[in-house]
Write the structure tokens for this entry.
Amino acid sequence: MAEEKWERTPGGAVLMDGNRLRDELVVDLKGRIEALGNPHVCLATVLVGDDKPSQIYVRNKRKKAEEAGMVSRHVELPGDISQPDLEAAVRDLADDPSVHGILVQLPLPDGLDAERILDLLPPEKDVDGLTERSMGRLLRGRDGHVPCTPLGVMRLMERYGVETAGKKAVVIGRSTLVGLPQVLLLGRKGCDATPTLAHSRSGDLAAICREADIIVAAVGVAGLVTAEFVKPGAAVLDVGISRTADGIQGDVDFDAVQAVAGAITPMPGGTGPMTIGCLMENTFNAARMQGAFA
Ligand code: GUN
């Protein structure tokens, strides 16, 4: 797509529109599933308890799966369920050949051990890419599912022409969900950036980030990344979500940073929707890995 078609912020940065790219991904997957003769492709979602944001996330994931021509199977369990009962429910999905992808929405209510639940997921059904085995496959460069949020960041950069080869990248935040896999994806062959992993004990974060051509902010500190963190023309991708008195905020001070950056994600509407888009991509690949189609 020609660059001039891209929407820009008032300051001239390319707006990396996650809603739009997610929709393109879903339409593309729907077309591919139709072209294959509509094989059964099933994503199972597991929601435990009544956390409102989790309910919304899962509802959106189910909706997009259906839009992509997949079957959405949903298991909803009470917040006071016992660990053995939750393990039995997840084991049923793991053993069911008609289920290709399993997503256990996190965090689980207090008292439930998420690690032991994730351990039950076979790697080919782990469409979130969060289990030890999926992470190990990523580290070792073997085929497997990549965590959806960092994969979504990569897809946004590809789509909006952010150059990565030979570029310096800083990832702020060292979570297993985002920061750690993000560093691996940025540094691997084909992307060829040189990533630095920064965190709350890194010292002068602004100085570290100012060196970077690409900043991925994933700490959950509202407005942490200000204009003084950003080298003119850098790409800035915001993964943080903080629920503040002023509403939901990202890690990036969008208004200030868009005047300096070369490309930026909005918040909301940037990396969040791409997490769901990549979940659909992983589910499609999971079905293929399990022989649902050639
Ligand atoms: N909670 C917040 N983000 C995620 C995610 O990507 N996957 C799951 N399973 N839970 C989440």
Notes: The chain is about 40% helix and 15% strand.
